[in-house]
Design brief:
It comes from Mycolicibacterium rhodesiae (strain NBB3). This protein has 250 residues and is an alpha/beta fold. The protein has helices spanning 3-6, 12-19, 21-27, 34-45, 51-65, 72-85, 100-108, 121-134, 152-161, 180-190, 204-208, 210-218; strands at residues 90-94, 113-118, 140-144, 168-173, 193-201, 224-232, 240-248. The chain is globular. It binds S-adenosylmethionine. S-adenosylmethionine binds at residues 28, 69-71, 93-97, 100-101, 117-120, 123, 146, 174-176, 179.
Amino acid sequence: MSLKRRIPFLRWSFWRLAIGSRNITKTGQIGDGREAAAADYVVANARRGDIDDVIAKIDDFAYDKSFLINIGDEKGELLDAAVRRAHTELALELGTYCGYGSLRIARAAPTATVFSVELSEANARVAQRIWAHAGVADRVTCVVGTIGDGGKTLDALANEHGFSAGKLDLLFIDHDKAAYLPDLQSILERGWLHPGGIVVADNMLIPGSPKYREYMREQQGKLFDTAEHKTHGEYQTLAPDLVLESEYLG
Ligand SMILES: C[S@@+](CC[C@H](N)C(=O)[O-])C[C@H]1O[C@@H](n2cnc3c(N)ncnc32)[C@H](O)[C@@H]1O
């Protein structure tokens, strides 16, 4: 791997991301159009209908063109393994961004239906273009909203998309770090996750979600059985990160 791929500080797009970090929390985008550019790049360069090639081209874009805040290739392998371990038929992701995480879930679980909740309409449009190009738009759906919007999005998942007690196999949490724990608790209150279902949480070191991590420590052997996977932040090998994989014990 080249030095530029390993060390993010050598890339202007990484510094631009740091400058745009306030933008991300408000709009879900970095502010320089890179998310739409990623979709353009995929449509121009990836083989239509080839999910492997679409995922590879998004990774190429993130390494060589503009840094993206996807789960990325290294941590993505942890997600893939959890998806397979959960025998996933129904998955829910919180935080769609460009649709990369959902694509990985759809690839690791070829018969699964995947829903992804995203606050930004613009990101939903980017993800939908990429999913259509990968040929998975019939089973991967973005729901624009938030779990914390007073029940609107949770009700939409229940009433329009068939979420019901014990149906959810895999929950991937990768959005607003302050919302990790309350959103998990809202989903648990609905009873959608069944015993043996798995919750994966990204970015548990950088930027981290201390209340979520503490909760999983408290619940160890009670409501959840959690493994903390040591890994690196997306698209570089300099900064460490943690991915939490928690089996629901019910
Ligand atoms: C780190 S990115 C998600 C990356 C994606 N999971 C992947 O691996 O490809 C975070 C995304 O969460 C969205 N987001 C932030 N807060 C949110 C919330 N409360 N509900 C839903 N989406 C949210 C942002 O707009 C952004 O698109």
